[in-house]
C-alpha cells in the first residue's frame, strides 16, 4: 500500500497536476513544438514528398475528434503533435515554393575561381 501512494504522488497524476497549474504558459510551448517539427524536417536523410503536407490536416481532424476527451494528457500530447506537424509541413511548403534544385547524387567536379 505504501508503494502505491508513493507512485501516485510522483507519477503521471502529479505531472498532469503540475502541467494543468501551468496552463497560462502553454502558449509559450507552441514555438518550441514548431521548431521541433522544423528540426525533424532538417534531420531527415531523405527528401519528403509533398503528400506529407497532409499530416497537419490529419492531426487537426484527430485533435478535433479527441478534443472532448476526458483525458487531458491525450489532448495535450495531440496538440503538441499538431504543432510539430505544422512546423514540418511549413518546411515542406517552403521547400516547394522556393523550388531550388536538389542534387540527386554525389558529383565530383572541379571548381576554379579568382580572388
Question: How would you describe this protein?
Answer:
The radius of gyration is 21 Å and the shape is elongated. Mean pLDDT is 80; it is low at 1-8. The protein has 5 helices and no strands. The chain has helices at residues 2-10, 12-21, 30-42, 55-66, 72-98. Helices cover 62% and strands 0% of the residues. Helix 3 (30-42) crosses helix 5 and helix 4 runs antiparallel to helix 5.
Shape call: elongated
- Please identify the structural class as seen in this structure: mainly alpha
- The portion of residues assigned to helices is 55-70%
DSSP summary, beta strand count: 0
**How many angstroms does the end-to-end distance come to?**
78 Å
Main sheet summary: none
Strand content: under 5%
List the SSEs and their pairings:
Layout: H1 2-10, H2 12-21, H3 30-42, H4 55-66, H5 72-98
Helix pairs in contact: 3-5, 4-5
Concise synopsis of the structure shown:
With 115 residues, the protein is mostly helical. The protein is 62% helix and 0% strand. The model is unreliable at 1-8 (pLDDT under 50).
Structure keywords:
single chain, 115 residues, mainly alpha, 5 helices, 62% helix, disordered N terminus
Amino acid at each position: 500500500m505504501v508503494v502505491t501512494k508513493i507512485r501516485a504522488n510522483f507519477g503521471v497524476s502529479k505531472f498532469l497536476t503540475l502541467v494543468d497549474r501551468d496552463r497560462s504558459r502553454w502558449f509559450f510551448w507552441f514555438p518550441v513544438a514548431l521548431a521541433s517539427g522544423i528540426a525533424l524536417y532538417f534531420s531527415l536523410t531523405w527528401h519528403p514528398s509533398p503528400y506529407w503536407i497532409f499530416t497537419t490536416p490529419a492531426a487537426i481532424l484527430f485533435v478535433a475528434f479527441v478534443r472532448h476527451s476526458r483525458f487531458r494528457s491525450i489532448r495535450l500530447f495531440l496538440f503538441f503533435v499538431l504543432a510539430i506537424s505544422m512546423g514540418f509541413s511549413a518546411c515542406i511548403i517552403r521547400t516547394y515554393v522556393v523550388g531550388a534544385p536538389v542534387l540527386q547524387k554525389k558529383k565530383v567536379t572541379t571548381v576554379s575561381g579568382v580572388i
